[in-house]
Specification:
Belongs to the HAK/KUP transporter (TC 2.A.72.3) family. It is built from 23 helices and 9 strands. Helix 3 packs across helix 9, helix 6 packs across helix 7 and helix 6 packs antiparallel against helix 17.
Amino acid sequence: MSGGGGERQGGTAQELGATDSAANKREIVVNVESSSSIPYHYSNRHSLRLRNSAFFIPPAPLTVASTLPKEMGRWETVVLAYKTLGVVFGGLVTSPLYVYPSMPLKSPTEQDYLGIYSIMFWTLTLIGVVKYTCIALKADDQGEGGTFALYSLLCRNMNIGLLSSKQVQTNSSSSHSVLLGSTENKSRLRMFFERSIVARRVLLFIAMLGTCMLIGDGILTPAISVLSAMDGIRAPFPSVSKSLVEALSAGVLVVLFLLQKFGTSRVSFMFSPIMGAWTLCTPLVGIYSIIKHYPSIFKALSPHYILRFFWRNGKEGWLLLGGTVLCITGSEALFADLGHFNRSSIQIAFLLTIYPSLVLTYAGQTAYLIKNPTDHDDGFYKFIPTTIYWPVFIISTLAAIVASQSLISATFSVIKQSVVLDYFPKIKVVHTSSNKEGEVYSPEVNYILMVLCVAVILIFGDGKDIGNAFGVVVSLVMLITTILLTLVMIMIWRTPPWLVAIYFFIFFTMEGVYASAVLSKIPEGGWIPFAISFILAFIMFGWFYGRQKKMEYELTHKIDLERLGMLLSEPGIQRVPGLCFFYTNIQDGLTPILGHYIKNMRSLHTVTIFTTLRYLLVPKVAAHERIVVNRLGLEGVYGCVIQYGYADSLNLEGDGFVNQVTDSLQVYIQNCPDNLTSDHEEVQEEISAFEEAKLAGVVHIRGKTRFYIGNNCGWFDRSMLAFYEFLHGNCRSALPALGVPLSQRIEVGMLYEA
């Protein structure tokens, strides 16, 4: 209703009574557009229940699931796979631009290059094909991917208890359709996490760290990709200064970020031809280089070249892994961008185009370097034949721009997931597609990324320093994903222990060795992602801590129907004429702000409708299912849930919304089985009261809360809650822009004692 500092009473995705089963309850869903054909959903009991005098509003009707998108056809999937080239794989397929230049090679030999290529081949095969394409993509959380989606999936299927109340059971994807089983069938590890608050907090920290590292990746990928591509102009024109290359790179990135508001679909349609050209031309150049320089390069596919490489180079070989790991950079975006596309399209694109392209391109680069061992500092452009240098330069520059898109899109996705899960301050999230829930754009995040990317280029212009930072991000994000995937395999998929052990040993060992190598680069630029991740993690933890404290207070001080009845029966409390929409989001109860309001205003409107906005993971909610109403057992007090999807326009402007709700309640009253046997005059009196209240005036009331930090608070609570108040005061309101007239808005302020 108001600006940035407003508390979220009835905010996005909040559900009243959402944890209760729909079975054995009656609910009436009213078609507010056509009174001649009104569908009702009945069951054995009323939707109104008194459980310890608790407040209850029924969950969404099951028919809402009919609005979910249908399965894609074969050709639609192929077209979508083509579009993924412009969004998902940009960072991964352009990695040849900077992998060899990022390695601190000293007088490399033929055997060294064969060992390096063998490492890159098996890294791409095991991590790219096996881990991400075949395993991770199946661990989606309702179509979303990434580290926080894995954490959400674990919380959704286990009694972890750190997710906020908005995370309710909805239509799950097929990836976690496994039956949860009874308590005796739970694994020991799952029971350990459910019982140990320390283990749950460590798991949350790991998920937060992975999320923050991926956001850091979204800053570094555009910087290193564009800078490495633009640096190719200095080979034919040595007089071009490094500062000019940095300025050109920064200008290119600014234009890219300004295009983000048009949405992933439009951007990918424009970018996919570029990536298609890049994916085709680089392996062709690689094949030419293999034939010309070293036709037997594929003997390096034998893993024994890796063993010989480390035996011969020792510590120096271990340090070179800090550059080698960049060959798999962007693989996390393959998983995190899942919400923008789908599993099949990403798998088709990677296995049929990206993977073969990378294997051949690195083979060609390595073949060239074996014959020209001192050219590794410019290992990409030097292996391009002179006759096609400029066409490849143009394609590589455009491809580097596209490469930035994959991590930018992934950053939007993980930020959106964090906001929905209530682990990040409220920001504006725009759905740029009417049929794809995961395709989002955030103006604030976009411009912050733009500023940071340009700053990284201008301050740390050396590609090797950025490469060192990049390696830290890539290795740690992969390691965190491996840990979370292992937990999913054990506790949700119920994978046989021996398969889990093989998976964990191979990938944790491989990525652990990579991580140990890149951590040695922290003084040489590797500190950049740590600084960014620390700041982001502090913001996430501060917000989470404040939200948990607020939730604890509200659950402790919630108002139930018995308490509301006592408040209204107190001497001096009046029922003033008018229709009031009181926004609330407390499960099994009403917000403490209600008691605060009644005690101080000494009144409540004759007709008060406690309203909740319920966000559903569907594009649009059918008009006849949008408003769910019921009685709450007190005179003139009703409950209303407004359901909306991510492509719905939620606007309460004018009298349209008020009329829809009152019409729904009137139909509900007339058709409620209790009233079928009641006196007809009583029903008419109740309906007449509605009309009189509406004529007397309509008002919308919501809460605006803050913490009161007293002297009895410890230093930790004081500092964290003060930080939360700062974040809360500067973020957007969680209530959508409902368009309620200013003259009808009332905000009730209340201090929550910390």
